[in-house]
Amino acid sequence: MDEDFLRLDNQICFSLHAAARAFNGVYRDALKELGLTYPQYLVMLVLWEHGELPVKGIGERLRLDSGTLSPLLKRLEAAGHVERRRSAEDERSVTVRVTAEGAALREKALGVPRRIAAASGLSVDEMRALRDRLDGLAARLDTADPGALDCR
């Protein structure tokens, strides 16, 4: 029945939203001892993995615009975890790198994924499968034809 399509409990967007909020709560607790917020943790993950990057590159990897990213980077810099500097080649470009303190934080962060996995109740294989499905969903939604979304 078409009316069932409009029930909140039948909305995948709401299920994803609720799961994301629940994950954020678990991450908040897991990251408390590191002194990082979830968005700051994501920035640190990108930098630990890729090294020094332009702000634009961090934003692309995290799907964040510079207006959202700049305050995060300022707070991470104030905490001593990262250093920002203007590119010598292009004054408009700012690069970010992890400081020695930020690199030391990586060791403390190694337990975070295990804590998240334990809280989820999923096996490693189930977590990978779910991540792959969500990545595929995001890719399809990113390339969805807006014209195909006509509800008439």
Task: State the major sheet.
Answer: 3 strands, antiparallel
Strand content: 5-15%
Count of extended strands: 3
Oligomer: single chain
- General form: globular
Can you characterise this structure?
β2 and β3 form a beta hairpin. Helices cover 61% and strands 8% of the residues. A 3-stranded antiparallel sheet has the order 1-3-2. It is mainly alpha-helical and 152 residues long. The chain is globular.
Question: What is shown here, in short?
Answer:
The protein has 152 residues and is mainly alpha-helical. The chain contains seven helices and three strands. Helix 1 crosses helix 6.
Please specify the SSE layout and strand pairing.
Blueprint: H1 12-31, H2 38-50, E1 53-54, H3 55-62, H4 66-78, E2 82-86, E3 94-98, H5 100-109, H6 112-120, H7 124-142
Antiparallel strand pairs: 1-3, 2-3
Kindly list the characteristics that best describe this protein.
152 residues, mainly alpha, 3 strands
